[in-house]
Amino acid sequence: MEFDSEDAAKMFYDEYARGVGFVMRVMSCRRSERDGRILARRLGCNKEGHCVSIRGKFGAVRKPRPSTREGCKAMIHVKYEKSGKWVITKFVKDHNHPLMVSPREARQTMDEKDKKIQELTAELRNKRRLSATYQEQLIACMKIVEEHSDRLSKKIQNVVNNLREFESIDQDLLHMR
Questions:
Q1: What is the bridge-based pairing of β-strands 38-45 and 2-3?
Q2: CB-based burial label for 82 (10 Å; 0-12, 13-18, 19+)
Q3: Where is the signal peptide (predicted)?
Q4: What is the rounded average pLDDT of the residues 17-40?
Q5: How far is CA 97 from CA 19, 46, 73, 101, in A?
Q6: What is the structure's pLDDT at 110?
Q7: DSSP labels for 47-70?
Q8: Contact 38, 80 (CB under 8 A)
Q9: CB–CB of 78/9 below 8 Å?
Q10: Taking phi first (over 0 means left), then psi (-120 to 50 degrees means alpha), and beta for anything else, what does residue 117 get?
Q11: Mean pLDDT to the nearest integer, 120-131
Q12: Which of 51, 100, 142, 152 could form a disulfide with 69 if both were Cys (CB 3.0 to 4.6 A apart)?
């Protein structure tokens, strides 16, 4: 199958997941080293892998919770093709757990989470641009202050030299009297 966009592929797999009885999770992506855009994405069951818990390492665990991960292999891999389409290159259908989505798990779809991630990523990108602009302005301001400081130092040095010259002339005049 092929899609016009990565989002279209996600929406398709999310609808498929809900219909079959599992929750889709965005698992990984591969980005271009040149411009950072996403070239491939792996979408799968939210029970993929096994949770490595750090609970208990930093003190007592108040309420140990069971892991929601069961090592499920169900997934699709979509890849951006030169044609501009997103194509499914791998599909694993089988789950190793019962399929049935509880209302709690289905409460927030991955589309909503992805939209929030995209919004936050865009906001972060804008903040970085703003920060870079502020940095450029600060550097320009510091350069102006430094140039002004150099000019003031030269003027002060001229005044000091003129005073020394005046003192020496004044001393000569006093000795002549």
A1: unpaired
A2: exposed
A3: none
A4: 87
A5: 16, 11, 10, 12
A6: 57
A7: TBS-----TTTTS--SS-------
A8: yes
A9: yes
A10: alpha
A11: 91
A12: 51
Structure tokens given for 20 = 């079959």
Do 6 and 78 touch, CB atoms closer than 8 A? yes
- Tell me the β-bridge partners of 26: 43
C-alpha gyration radius of the chain: 33
Q: What is the pTM of this model?
A: 0.49
Does position 68 have pLDDT exceeding 80, yes or no? no
Which pLDDT score is estimated for 12?
A: 92
Tokens of 169: 């002339």
Q: Which of 52-56, 69-73, 81-85 has the weakest average pLDDT? A: 52-56
Ramachandran bin of 59, using left for φ above 0, alpha for ψ from -120 to 50, beta for the remaining angles: left
Encoded amino acid at 156, one letter: I
Question: How many percent of the chain have pLDDT more than 70?
Answer: 82
The token duo for 113 is: 């989470």
Determine contact, residues 17/8, Cβ cutoff 8 Å: no
